[in-house]
């Protein structure tokens, strides 16, 4: 496994697992060790330094190939008017999001894999800090994506490019024209008919990384007024698998022997299996638990793996 770097794609424990599952999540407390922003509401572009939450280290960095599936949550009233991690002022009615390791501000496309709603959000904060979540979105974003009432959703998060600052100014490093174009519309290729793909960051041994699957082209616009027009404020619907499940994945290996060793080490958690998959001409052996049809069950499985020392495990979405 990729030592502690893979921890950038896992979630650190700071609150009870159920905190992000309620319709109105309780206050999310940002630990003092998190690098915070400063200054006025305009904010600034930053990658950020490594930081630790509990026994997990996170390593912010440039991630132009970022494409990950998992569980999203939303955060709101307790953060009105407070500074985000890059120094802007949080606005629950804006189309923004919090991510643990992406630079800020950048644009990502978030797709709800339960209903196909997809929207471009602007990452300008750090989080989430609940175990088993890959992104926190604003209240408005949760409403537009259709999971405000549920509190969580199975999502896909894909990096698009750098975003404008909160004051409307461009980032300090010019964004290539093709990235700017990508931030305004989803790619036009079709969704993979076999699987959602390996989550980046979980390849445990040498070899070419799996190719991230592009999002399908938008098919029908959803007529929902969006208050914020940056980056576009447009909600689209994209084709998604009819049925998806949650899995807790501990790692992916290019050799079966390594996967067997991890499975043996995690046997105490129960329900640990090896799931092979072919990607880019390479067979990978994924060590995972599942499938689960609800977030609570996936959270419980993740807690079992964490309890026996596997802090790299993460919740992913697959068929």
Give a written overview of the molecule.
The chain has helices spanning 139-145, 177-182, 256-265, 295-307, and strands at 51-53, 56-58, 67-74, 96-98, 106-112, 117-125, 135-137, 152-162, 220-221, 236-237, 245-253, 272-279, 282-292, 314-318. The chain is an alpha+beta fold. A six-stranded mixed barrel has the order 3-7-4-6-5-8. The longest helix has 13 residues, at 295-307. The radius of gyration is 18 Å and the shape is globular. The two termini are 23 Å apart.
Question: Main traits of this protein?
Answer:
alpha+beta, 14 strands, 319 residues, 26% strand, 4 helices, four-stranded antiparallel sheet, globular
What's the layout of helices and strands?
Elements: E1 51-53, E2 56-58, E3 67-74, E4 96-98, E5 106-112, E6 117-125, E7 135-137, H1 139-145, E8 152-162, H2 177-182, E9 220-221, E10 236-237, E11 245-253, H3 256-265, E12 272-279, E13 282-292, H4 295-307, E14 314-318
Parallel strand pairs: 3-7, 4-6
Antiparallel strand pairs: 1-2, 3-8, 4-7, 5-6, 5-8, 6-10, 9-10, 11-13, 11-14, 12-13
């Amino acid at each position: 496994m990729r030592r502690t770097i893979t921890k950038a794609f896992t979630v650190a424990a700071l609150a009870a697992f159920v905190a992000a599952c309620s319709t109105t999540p309780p206050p999310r407390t940002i630990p003092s060790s998190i690098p915070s922003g400063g200054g006025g509401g305009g904010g600034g572009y930053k990658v950020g330094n490594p930081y630790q939450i509990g026994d997990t280290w996170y390593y912010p960095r440039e991630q132009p190939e970022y494409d990950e599936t998992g569980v999203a949550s939303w955060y709101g009233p307790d953060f009105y008017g407070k500074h985000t991690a890059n120094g802007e002022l949080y606005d629950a009615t804006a189309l923004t999001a919090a991510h643990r390791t992406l630079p800020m501000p950048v644009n990502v496309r978030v797709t709800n894999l339960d209903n196909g709603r997809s929207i471009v959000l602007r990452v300008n904060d750090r989080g989430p800090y609940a175990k088993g979540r890959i992104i926190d979105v604003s209240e408005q974003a949760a409403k537009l994506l259709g999971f405000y009432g549920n509190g969580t959703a199975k999502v896909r998060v894909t990096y698009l490019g750098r975003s404008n600052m909160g004051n409307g100014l461009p980032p300090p490093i010019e964004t290539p024209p093709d990235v700017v174009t990508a931030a305004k519309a989803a790619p036009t290729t079709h969704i993979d008919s076999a699987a959602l793909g390996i989550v980046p960051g979980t390849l445990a041994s040498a070899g070419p990384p799996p190719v991230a699957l592009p999002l399908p082209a938008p098919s029908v616009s959803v007529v929902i007024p969006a208050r914020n027009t940056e980056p576009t404020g447009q909600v689209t619907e994209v084709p998604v698998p009819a049925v998806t499940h949650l899995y807790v994945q501990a790692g992916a290996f290019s050799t079966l022997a390594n996967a067997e060793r991890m499975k043996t080490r995690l046997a105490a958690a129960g329900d640990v299996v090896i799931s092979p998959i072919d990607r880019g001409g390479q067979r990978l052996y994924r060590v995972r638990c599942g499938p689960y049809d609800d977030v609570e069950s996936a959270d419980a499985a993740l807690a079992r793996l964490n309890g026996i020392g596997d802090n790299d495990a993460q919740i992913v979405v697959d068929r």
